[in-house]
Amino acid sequence: MTTAPENGSGRRSAHWFGAGGRSGMIYRSWMRNQGFSDEVFDGRPVIGIAVSGSELAPCNAHLSRVAESVKRGVWQAGGFPLEFPVMALGETVLRPTAMLYRNLLAMEAEELMRANPLDGAVLLSGCDKTTPGLLMAAASTDLPSLMITGGPMLNGKFRGEDIGSGTHVWKFEEEVRAGRMSEADCAFAESCMSRSNGHCMTMGTASTMACMAEALGMQPAFAATWPAVDARRYAAAQRAGRRIVAMVEEDVRPSSIMTREAFENAIRINAAIGGSTNAVIHLLAVAGRLGVDLALDDFDALVREVPTLLDLMPSGRFLMEDFCYAGGLPAVVAELGDLLHTEAPTVTGEPIGAAARAGAAECHDREVIRPFDDPLQPAGTGTAVLRGNLAPGGAVVKQSAASPHLLVHRGRARVFDSPEEYYAVADDPDLDVDADTVLVLRNCGPVGYPGMPEVSNVALPSRLLSQGVTDMVRICDGRMSGTAYGTVVLHTAPEAAVGGPLALVRDGDEITLDVPARRLTLEVDDAELDRRRAAWTPPRPHSERGWTRLYCDHVLQADRGADLDFLVGSSGHEVPRESH
Ligand code: FES
Ligand code: MG
């Protein structure tokens, strides 16, 4: 039986709900069991609302309430909203790391968007991996889509001090280990840090990616920064519901929003907000889905003239709530001015520079959002991309989170094959490290861990902490939490587990880090490295089956966004074959 559309709308959804005969009856009849009346099948745009929330993903647990606001807007505009769950990735709870599952979420959401009778989608995300995962899905279906992130938690408040998610966990851990804070006070601080729904309120990965969604044009202006509990977030969600219906009518697709210009804007805005290094990997992965020509080195070249404007933790003092009240991302866009492609389109139909041009992007707090000519950190101190014989595929270092005196440094390597191996001896008072030691931590990459977790910023050895040392050079093939800080070389590619040079480092080797020259050098000659390489054997696979097997067999290195090789690109949103 064919399912030629009968309601004549020509939309994708008409191939289901507008179909004649037995098939049409099947598609409609079972939907009716939810109490929908006839009009929903009249050819109106069907809008899927992808909800990446669950009680296991605390940062996204409120997204079903945000979905209710989106639905109001969709109904108002004459659309038919249908909420559907997608993988909820909780950064804090998932082991071995939520990053192992970002591509699985992207794959799941892509397939659901294509296989269902949807004409457009609203993507609800929050916690770190949910935003890039859903953007990747939208890119690969190229179905009209917009994003609403769930918003940050309210500022943490501990004994009169603002405390930030993540950032203060690292700080308190150090205080306790150095004997300056009691275990009891630390336990009390735990409940002071997470006071409302929402994602981390530092400029960690979630806030960064929410800002990236707005910077790319996929999320409406101001929507990255309203706290999760702010009524204006819900009003924005309702407006988004109305807007997606219009986007379907105008056929506004992700590929027309997320252009090379949009990525250039995002990369520069990420530097201005002091955003997470994880944005590098996620933006590369999204760009790969769209066929946008973006490379790791763009992240270095594009940010050299961009100062850090935002004084937010972990690089600075304030939190997302302060950023919101200070003017939100449009105020940063206004400040960057001509450094951005201000005409780049966004999902609202207005270009990214519209709020600034209309005078609606004022800054209300110059302590939080600094002026371009009096920035928090001068231009050229953003994320740097390093190359050299230790990182032929590149590595990154977040200069604003690093110690200036370590940006040019030569020291002897102390090598650990896993974080567990390091932590087993980290408190040993006789550990053979000093302030100049370069701590090498390997097998933390996409294949190595697996999933490339945020373990690179290992806490300093007790011995150094007790000497008052606050930072040391660490080099790793893993990632670092966006809420963390330290002179940590990240994303070293290729990773050790696939035979990258990091696998060849031995205790006592000299390593030179030269951030101004963008070099990372293992001071061992090629002949010796060749000998070591010949003797190297790959680690045993983590799993012979399941997702971990599929992931490890196909994951690309960090410099390609750690997507799966067969997920790069787009399959569009053609209506699949009949199911009955
Ligand atoms: Fe979910 Fe930080 S843990 S946003
Ligand atoms: Mg994180």
Q: Count of helical segments?
A: 20
CATH architecture of the largest domain: 3-Layer(aba) Sandwich
- How many β-strand runs? 14
CATH class of the largest domain: Alpha Beta
Contiguous runs where pLDDT drops below 50 for at least 5 residues:
none
CATH superfamily of the largest domain: Response regulator
Coarse structural class: alpha/beta
Spatial order of strands in the largest sheet: 7-8-12-11-10-9-13-14
The biggest beta sheet reads: 8 strands, mixed
Percent helix, as a range, is 25-40%
- CATH topology of the largest domain: the name is Rossmann fold
How far the N terminus sits from the C terminus, by CA atoms, comes to: 8 Å
Pfam families: ILV_EDD_C, ILVD_EDD_N
Keywords: 2Fe-2S, Amino-acid biosynthesis, Branched-chain amino acid biosynthesis, Iron, Iron-sulfur, Lyase, Metal-binding
EC number: 4.2.1.9
GO molecular function: 2 iron, 2 sulfur cluster binding; dihydroxy-acid dehydratase activity; metal ion binding
